[in-house]
Amino acid sequence: MIKVGIVGGTGYTGVELLRILAVHPDAEVSCITSRSEAGLAVAEMYPNLRGHYDLAFSEPDVAKLAACDLVFFATPHGVAMRMMPELMAAGVRVVDLSADFRLKDLDVWAQWYGMPHESPEWAEKAVYGLPEVAREAIRGAQLVANPGCYPTAVQLGFLPLLESDLVDSTRLIADAKSGASGAGRQGKIGMLHGEIGESFKAYGASGHRHLPEIRQGLQQASKLPVGVTFVPHLIPMIRGIEATLYAELTNAGDFERLQRVFENRFRNEPFVDVMPFGSHPETRSVRGANTCRMALHRQENSNIVIVSSVIDNLVKGAAGQAVQNMNIMFDLPETRGLEAPALLP
Amino acid sequence: MIKVGIVGGTGYTGVELLRILAVHPDAEVSCITSRSEAGLAVAEMYPNLRGHYDLAFSEPDVAKLAACDLVFFATPHGVAMRMMPELMAAGVRVVDLSADFRLKDLDVWAQWYGMPHESPEWAEKAVYGLPEVAREAIRGAQLVANPGCYPTAVQLGFLPLLESDLVDSTRLIADAKSGASGAGRQGKIGMLHGEIGESFKAYGASGHRHLPEIRQGLQQASKLPVGVTFVPHLIPMIRGIEATLYAELTNAGDFERLQRVFENRFRNEPFVDVMPFGSHPETRSVRGANTCRMALHRQENSNIVIVSSVIDNLVKGAAGQAVQNMNIMFDLPETRGLEAPALLP
Amino acid sequence: MIKVGIVGGTGYTGVELLRILAVHPDAEVSCITSRSEAGLAVAEMYPNLRGHYDLAFSEPDVAKLAACDLVFFATPHGVAMRMMPELMAAGVRVVDLSADFRLKDLDVWAQWYGMPHESPEWAEKAVYGLPEVAREAIRGAQLVANPGCYPTAVQLGFLPLLESDLVDSTRLIADAKSGASGAGRQGKIGMLHGEIGESFKAYGASGHRHLPEIRQGLQQASKLPVGVTFVPHLIPMIRGIEATLYAELTNAGDFERLQRVFENRFRNEPFVDVMPFGSHPETRSVRGANTCRMALHRQENSNIVIVSSVIDNLVKGAAGQAVQNMNIMFDLPETRGLEAPALLP
Amino acid sequence: MIKVGIVGGTGYTGVELLRILAVHPDAEVSCITSRSEAGLAVAEMYPNLRGHYDLAFSEPDVAKLAACDLVFFATPHGVAMRMMPELMAAGVRVVDLSADFRLKDLDVWAQWYGMPHESPEWAEKAVYGLPEVAREAIRGAQLVANPGCYPTAVQLGFLPLLESDLVDSTRLIADAKSGASGAGRQGKIGMLHGEIGESFKAYGASGHRHLPEIRQGLQQASKLPVGVTFVPHLIPMIRGIEATLYAELTNAGDFERLQRVFENRFRNEPFVDVMPFGSHPETRSVRGANTCRMALHRQENSNIVIVSSVIDNLVKGAAGQAVQNMNIMFDLPETRGLEAPALLP
Questions:
Q1: CB contact under 8 A, B246 and C173
Q2: Which of the listed residues A77, B179, C247, D114 has the most CB atoms within 10 Å of its CB?
Q3: Which CATH number fits the domain that encloses residue B94?
Q4: Residue D100 and residue D81: Cα distance in Å, rounded?
Q5: C223 and C98 both lie in a single domain
Q6: Strand C228-234, strand C201-202: pairing
Q7: DSSP character string of C302-328
Q8: What is the pLDDT of residues B256-276, one digit of tens each?
Q9: Is ipTM beyond 0.95?
Q10: C174 and C78 share one domain
């Protein structure tokens, strides 16, 4: 039984970890911290957990966390990097769901997150936890940087194209859309139901923090330099990301084998589902599930490949992928605790 | 391993049964019928089931169903009653999620469902499957009539009051609200997103089919004659029922012990959760879960008891309760396959 | 041309006043105040007003307001009562959309609003601005207390019953539901889209500030003592209130003439629409319009009258009714500026 | 007073025409036809119109339509083209909101709409009614083909770039998203609230009927050959389209003057609003209004121009633009009847 600690469990990522771990047969949450809510029962904040947890939020305490086998960070950026050296020294393994250890170039990190990075040593050692790319490194890692939600949906959709060198890597476009839970659980006017219900908009169109993370991941998969444009949008719903990806095939004749390339790439991946050519994945088909579902399209005789890729931003885009990483790190079957189908309708 | 058949699995109740049974360790769906979709893979109709089922819809076939240990009917009313005599004769056990066997007074049934009842023998023998009331009868039943969604939420909330004879049983009011999935998956203009999104209304306010079912259940719990007014409403969301119940305490002094009465009534019920006095249950706290969550309220010195009761109409109001009944019928732990917390947010 | 001032225009009630007044041929907004947003163009906060207003928010300034013909207060409670004596002395007329002057019993006011009332003189003189009840008093009033949203929907539906002494006035039940805009535009976690989307719940079930206002209004219409239970609920949508009202007919025979009683009561009311008996008013049918639409129901031989009453909480429940009151106060046609049909779908 | 006829008024476009015309001071609807609903009062089908129209749907009747000054077609494709020769011969003027007369290449039309075109003469004479491009031709036209919803949002956003020859016209990408009302008011399972609520997906990604219309319009604006990829998506809301457009600047230095190019292009357009560089237009900011609102973005040093363009698909994307066209055709001020601000929130 893996003894799990969660730092910063009051947000949507935190409650999602608790939801998934509640039925995980090999893991048990032994402590969950929140500075602001210390003393409050988690089931009082999240009534769906009534009857599932007796646990209360506690003050962050390195000693207590150090006694865990695995600690998840579900904190805003800037928190994990400060606690990491001490925890690493204590030998704990960590999956950090925040952005602190996702970027290798710390100048870029500092520029996008507005503060200098305080743990360069662990930024270098951290393994970027996209299992479809780095499964073996994850297995041996002490610190896994869990990918962002958009980067997960976008990278998985572009990877087969870049790895096989099929497209013009300098002209990638990712038009992505997310439900409101991606913005977290903070009292911002802009995220009120009255503000975002029955409306749709782009945001961060001039530059979003997930852009450098996407670029880093795509560059790693590509022999040639990558140029990518990424525009996120806000959907008036709670869970789900859809990313429509556009890339220009170098050789239009490659369209014929494209479906096979994708299917082969993900044949052994338990959480990536390539639908038949011309399908339209719906975000609801992955609601609550750790699946990335995608499909390919071509318009008339165009040489533009269109990929539509969907995930649940809180699951494959956050807590589910974190548990998948935990399973890998502890040599459990990768799907353990993540078997249930999505909630549809 | 219980061999399960499903008749009429193309609706929301059908896909919900499939979702729940996909991870039930002691049951396996061996056939699912649909006249209109015979031949279609269930995962093609419901992409959330891709990778979970190889099954395709087949033509209804009594012989094949008779080879099952348990058959769920997820059909419109009028179907189950016609097939029941033959299936019962074959010795199969059945949980009928349709309305065919819920009412004992077949004149009332005929009046509300617009056709004569064709299986009076089994209407009499059928056990009304509200486990919190009829657990022992369910255990031995060959045919269980799975309760309607509104009747589940309304009965559970009123039961402690009527069983303890605390209220004026002639003045019960149930103001209930449901998400759109309760209307099923049929191409009706009135259920389009464009028609019901961003809007709210009562419907069936002059009389709804669940009224006689509610009245029958409440009358059974009450020594005195029951008079109940029931108004359903349509919420612009997919899953969830909230019922606000109003009853007049015979003795206002009883307010002090009311919370205890409710807690005692449901102390051993795995799927009924009485929250602290004055709480407000949210439908999302039971989304995807088999729980009925409720709380009590009093306004100033009023002698009106207010009960707010929530369920997921597709789970405790349909497929989840059906699986709970199956667990009881097959002497499994009642919570088997129904342990996962609700999906929140 | 009526010179209009608006105090506290950054909330939903403020933007709604601006939207309506933008096309009102006889009124012009000459100043709008907001302490927090002084200097900001209103069209920058509310992009739907781009091209309609050049105005910017300014610091509250009694002299400037005193130069207006009419001032609307769209402030949280506690603000208007402090500024009122000075404004009244200056001879300005005011429609207060806040709760400050709605209750006549200031002890009750203090109890529900958590502070002593600071302008008892004007609380006494203020006219409660429900035009269907107090049209003549409104015409001559210097200070009009614009009714709350729930109280508007609930009172209009109960009035014909109480005024005609047809029901047991001690057993009134109002089960009301509102969209999220009723909670205003403040950064509360509980009003995030992620918290209230796809969910439904009661709130304030043990007592809500609109209860005493409803009781006061109903009592005024009734010869006999009034007892009313009022439970509000939160609908996952933005605009709209539906109130389902339950009352016990003293004489069940009166059901036959009930529809006529309602139609006669509102025959000359431009903003109350009584639908045919047995109809189901939808909130979308009044979205953006100043209409209260209602219908009557009876279940079988019950003596319970059911009234379903809908309004747009921001229009007939706030800004629209305020403009209706302005029209009355300035002897304009009552419908001026309020003629457009609701936005459906 | 313009005497208006509407053919096929039972859909969302029809009710929207009625809503707008209800307050148009210079037009009056004198007949509205519907084969299926003949005899039904329009206010019975659309309760928001109660009190605004006495009109009932009538059988289509050319003589009656010929007596109108202007006829709007709000029919599925294939209807208008059959009635057009007779109506044109009668001298009536027509604004056709269907797709029948939008494409000049009738082979392309036949390919996308699955039937041969039956009125080639009028297909040639019809004026494509995008006022920002063809105002003068519209003024004198007898038959105006009202643009599709997506084509309106997409063309307006691309026009300044193509007209000024600033971008690579062969690499245009339009990622567009629409609310559900765009699919019309028909009882399709795929448009149920239960199917599309809380979900997001692309559709028609391999080819959508609006693609050739978009291509035709863009080609007309461009000296060089146009290549455009267009992917529509379904948003879980009712009204609104957002199109995010991507184009590659030929000369990255042109970014500096881009905002000015857009502002100049639309300076005199009453219904196009160019927001400050870097803004994010929301669909709610145009809900119910005839405005197209757009903004420009650039990511770091990229040479990709990003345009986000929003409209209300039922207004500027259909009925509002049709009334704008009517105003032009009858020499009225172009904004007549279209002055009200959008409904926000």
A1: yes
A2: B179
A3: 3.40.50.720
A4: 6
A5: no
A6: antiparallel
A7: --EEEEEEEE-TTIIIIIHHHHHHHHH
A8: 999 999 999 999 999 999 999
A9: yes
A10: no
